[in-house]
Amino acid sequence: MAFYQLWHERETAVRWHLSTSIAESKLLTRTERRVLVFLFSYYDKDKRRIDYPGHDRFAARHHIRLERLQAALLALERGGYVMADPLPANVFAYIPNALLIQEALERAHGAYPELFSAFDSL
Length: 122
Prior knowledge:
Shape: globular
Structural class: alpha+beta
Number of strands: 4
Largest sheet: 4 strands, antiparallel
CATH architecture: Orthogonal Bundle
Helix content: 55-70%
Strand order of the largest sheet: 1-2-4-3
Number of helices: 6
């Protein structure tokens, strides 16, 4: 199997387990779960942050009322799931909680060990 295909399948598995973990969360409201899953669709793994498009664009694209979106983002920040990027030049970015990504990586590793063992041999 080609390196790129392995990498793509591994990344897909991690994203799937991340969204599953968020969906199974009992601590978040339905809106908070939706917002968090959609936030991770903007995750840039090279920059290790979520490039947020802004409240208006995000709310329109994902069909969430603006006041519900703002309340969900505040709750996610207070809960430690995301943190607003402290750089004043980039107002529209969030830093995700690394434990969420680590947990998804461990779940994917347990479910698909062959994808991860292939990278160990490279």
